[in-house]
Amino acid sequence: MYLVIIIKVALKSLYANKLRSFLAVLGVIIGVGAVIAMLSIGAGARQDVVGRLQSLGTDLLMIRPGQRGFGGVMTGTHQNLKKEDAEAILKDVPNVLAVSPVVQNKAQVKYYERNSAVTVLGAAGTYFSARNFEIERGRGFTDGEVEGMARVAVIGPTTCENLMGQDDPVNAVIKVKGINFKVIGVTKSKGDQGWFNPDDQVIVPYTTAMRQLFGMDRLSEIDVQGRPGADLTAIQDDITSLLRQRHRLQEDTDNDFNIGNQAEILATLSSVTRALTILLGSIGSISLIVGGIGIMNIMLVTVTERTREIGVRKAIGAKDRDILRQFLFEAIFMSCLGGLIGVGMGISVAKLIGAATQFTTSIQPQSVLMAMSFAAAVGIFFGYYPARRAARLNPIDALRYE
Amino acid sequence: MIIDAQTLVKTYELGGSTVRALDGISFQIDAGEMVAITGPSGSGKSTLMHILGCLDQPDSGAYFLAGENVAGLSRDRLAETRNRRIGFVFQTFNLLPRMSALENVELPLLYAGNHNATEPAIEALRTVGLEERMRHEPNQLSGGQRQRVAVARAIVTDPAIILADEPTGNLDSKTGEEIMALFFSLNAQGRTIILVTHELSIAKRCPRRIHLYDGRIVEN
Ligand SMILES: Nc1ncnc2c1ncn2[C@@H]1O[C@H](COP(=O)(O)OP(=O)(O)O)[C@@H](O)[C@H]1O
Ligand SMILES: [Mg+2]
Questions:
Q1: Are the CB atoms for A202 and A83 separated by under 8 Å?
Q2: Which residues contact A285 (CB under 8 A, 6 or more apart)?
Q3: A16: which chain B residues are within 8 Å (Cβ-Cβ)?
Q4: Which residue's CA is minimally distant from atom 11 of ligand 1?
Q5: Which one of A66, A380, B3, B40 is separated from B123 by 20 to 30 angstroms, measured CA to CA?
């Protein structure tokens, strides 16, 4: 009953000053909306980055030849990664699950009259699972095919579409640099990654690629997959010392290879996107605080305007806390109302940004909850001072106020 | 004895000069009395009523309400005292806007923590003869009706004392008479009533009169 009266009085007095109440609430609406929209952009960016990296494989170390050069001038790439390096890593480094030597080149690929210049990748059978490739149709290659330099190929879905259209790719024969290869599988689409397109390539056994296609005896890359749960950094250190030893590098010379650690890149990027999220969230929070100041301002005006009413209430027996509750409730009500509208606005803005720009947005339930409770907290914080001022008025001073 | 005022003094500083609104006032009032306080404008009547109603405190002197020294009470206890022991009727009605007559009358009970406020509030409105207007808001009521609502609000907590500061001052003489009749009947039911008036005709009908002049009692 008491609460009903408080709510009634609050609603009526807010309604009696519609425009003013709305303007006071507007700040909170914008603040909450901004927090939600900003956080959804941050979370979207994070999911985007993490998702892309995960599709490349996260328990992966990629060893590439180092840059040749002197004093910062790059003059080319060392050609120093050998098949034997890869075999040594698998044999001598603990916690290594699989090693795939990789060679890579551009080549002309032909299917009947259709031509396409695509990336031809030589790899081992373990390459697919290490790089999180799924085989959509057919199969990957076996160890026997790799050892026996079989002329088999797994192709990306884009390549498949470009070359074969509607034809069944499995067991079809394509020509790579004029040599016949049997297509044994098609990978599942991963989407264009920007810097390369994993859907548009032809993957063949690295042995075949080195000897029969490109006549190379050096590798473009060695992919090393750690055992589940193994410490990739420790493996990285072991590989570094092994390769330095094999390449006979002196103590004071730099590595002639680079090791890319996907887990490390992932950690760095996700901490960057987390910082971005915090930054965006703080910008939103500042507007929410500005909204709170707007509410405080209006509440101070309201208290002054209703001084006589406060006096009357005290004359008939209202205690300080009764008055405090009344005005605090009005402030919290305004900020929560603003919060609710702001949630709606924030979600719509986030969806709009996601649809109309290249930003990915992801609305986080916990950020909605956080923004809502922050709005309520703003109401309490900025409503408390005006409400206390009202509560502490002397009854007679309030009654005589003109 | 329900009211015991001992040498009450209240002064106001106004632009360097000091106004002695109450200049050492002492009197006693017994339960069930009906007292008129009279005196020219500025003689300190309202100041005295505010102190008796626990809305204000004297600078010096002591005020005992039902045997209790009001000076020692906390803000909360003063609010409780105003709520339970005193019903105040103002010259300007002082009803809360945007609230119905019924809600206005319920309010003192709600502040007293009484959750079944509606029944007693309707009963109080019936006493002042206004129960069929209880859904109306103050701006839909005439002056006399508003003052009736104010009286209902003053009696709803069943206080021992009703204080009325010029309750008929803003009313025409006919509605003023009706309000006075209400006070007389409340007094007949045993309530202590203290009312300020400058109308001699009204004061003459009260059994006891206290006349103020420049903050002093000149006739009791
Ligand atoms: N809040 C105040 N500040 C300054 N002077 C006041 C205040 N209240 C009352 N007074 C002065 O005290 C005197 C008594 O006032 P009041 O009690 O209202 O008289 P009455 O009700 O008999 O007309 C007057 O001179 C008035 O000007
Ligand atoms: Mg007066």
A1: no
A2: A31, A35, A374
A3: 98
A4: B21
A5: B3
Tell me what ipTM this predicted complex has. 0.95
Ordered per-residue pLDDT tens for chain B, 220 residues: 999 999 999 999 988 899 999 999 999 999 999 999 999 999 999 999 999 999 999 999 999 999 999 998 999 999 999 999 999 999 999 999 889 999 999 999 999 988 889 999 999 999 999 999 999 999 999 999 999 999 999 999 999 999 999 999 999 989 999 999 999 999 999 999 999 998 888 899 999 999 999 999 988 8
- Give the residue from B164, B105, B56 showing the smallest Cα distance to A400: B56
Contacts of A248 (CB under 8 A, 6+ apart): none
Return the C-alpha torsion angle B30, B35, B40, B45, nearest 10: 50
Please tell me the pTM assigned to this model: 0.75
In the sheet that B3-14 helps form, which strands lie side by side, from edge to edge?
B17-29, B3-14, B60-65, B68-69
Burial (CB < 10 A; 0-12, 13-18, 19+), residue A346, is buried
User: Cβ–Cβ of A309/B84 closer than 8 Å?
Assistant: no
Sequence-distant (6+) residues with CB within 8 A of B68 are none
Chain A residues with CB inside 8 Å of B113's CB? 2
Pair A198, A136: CB distance under 8 Å: no
- CB spacing of A317 vs B83 below 8 angstroms: yes
- In angstroms, rounded to a whole number, what is the distance separating the alpha carbons of residues A375 and A289? 9
User: Where do the structural domains in chain B lie, given as residue ranges?
Assistant: 32-45+81-219
List strand residue ranges (DSSP E) for A140-200, in order. Answer: 152-155, 173-176, 179-187
Tell which residue, B10, B31, B30, has the closest CA to residue B19.
B10
CB A68 within 8 A of CB A78: yes
Nearest bound ligand to the CA of residue B43: 1
What is the distance between the alpha carbons of residues B36 and B19, in angstroms, rounded to a whole number? 24
- For residue B181, count other CB atoms closer than 10 A to its CB: 10
Looking at the complex, does the CB of residue B106 fall below 8 Å from at least one CB of chain A? yes
User: At A160, which helix (H) or strand (E)?
Assistant: helix A157-164
B32-45+81-219 has which fold?
Rossmann fold (3.40.50)
With 0-12 / 13-18 / 19 or more C-beta atoms within 10 angstroms meaning exposed / middle / buried, residue B214 is: middle
* Nearest of A68, A123, A88, A125 to residue A239 by alpha carbon: A88
For the segment A29-48, what is each residue's pLDDT rounded down to a tens digit?
Answer: 999 998 899 889 888 888 88
> Which of B12, B23, B25 to mutate to test ligand 1, by most ligand atoms within 8 A of the CB atom?
B12
Distance of alpha carbon A305 from alpha carbon A14, whole angstroms: 13
- Do A393 and A322 contact (CB within 8 A), yes or no? no
Q: Are A372 and A49 in contact (CB under 8 A)?
A: no
Tokens standing for residue A202:
């032809």
How many Cα atoms occupy the beta-carbon half-sphere of A83 within 13 Å?
A: 15
Q: What does the alpha-carbon distance between residue A263 and residue A60 come to, in Å, rounded to a whole number?
A: 7
- Judge residue A243's burial from the number of C-beta atoms within 10 Å of its C-beta, 0-12 exposed, 13-18 middle, 19 or more buried: buried
Q: Which helix (H) or strand (E) holds B60?
A: strand B60-65
- Sort strands A179-187 and A67-70 into parallel, antiparallel or unpaired: unpaired
Render pLDDT for A111-141 as a digit per residue (tens, 0 to 9).
988 888 899 999 998 888 888 888 888 998 8
